Amino acid sequence: MSAQNAFESLETALWPTFAAALNTSRHGADVEKYFAYAVLELLHGVLAGEIGGFAIFYEDIRLDPAAPGGWSLALRLASHPPLAAALAGPELPAVLTRLSQAAAARLAAF
After folding, report:
1. Which of 14, 25, 63, 79 has CB 3.0 to 4.6 Å from 35, enough for a Cys bridge?
2. By the 8 A CB rule, do 57 and 21 touch?
3. Is the pTM of this model over 0.85?
4. 3-state class of 52 per DSSP?
5. Cross-strand bridge partners of residue 72
6. Which of 4 and 94 is assigned the larger pLDDT?
């Protein structure tokens, strides 16, 4: 499976739960939390085949409207070789941007 197909599969699996969570959010903190958990799940999927594991935490992920794409990751994530390689390509950043755009749209509704 190509990297693009793998990212699309992970994204497709995330959307129903993520969209439902956004729709039930009551304030901005909920939106930020749901975004972080969706990205956490996505990144765990990206690293699923990695030997030795790598811990990714909720606090490593931020909905960040001021950042390019509307999201930011902790430096330790962005510098982890398998994630750095995925982030250097166009697919993973595009998925993260789509998730952040949906979250930002929900934030604008408050």
Report:
1. 63
2. no
3. yes
4. coil
5. 62
6. 94
The sign of the torsion formed by the CA atoms of 26, 110, 102, 85 equals negative
| Residues of the chain by 3-state class (helix, strand, coil), percent to 5 | 70, 5, 25
Query: What's the one-letter identity of residue 27?
Result: H
Query: Which sign does the torsion angle of CA 14, 20, 24, 28 carry?
Result: positive
List the one residue out of 107, 37, 41, 109 whose CA is nearest residue 70.
107
SS3 69: helix
Specify the residue for token string 């979250």: 103
- Our CA angle for 98, 104, 108, nearest 5°, is 145
Over the range 54-68, which residues count as b (16 or more CB within 10 Å of their CB) and which as e? eebeeebbbbbeeee
Provide mean pLDDT across the span 74-93: 93
The one-letter amino acid at 103: A
Q: Average pLDDT over the chain, rounded to whole?
A: 92
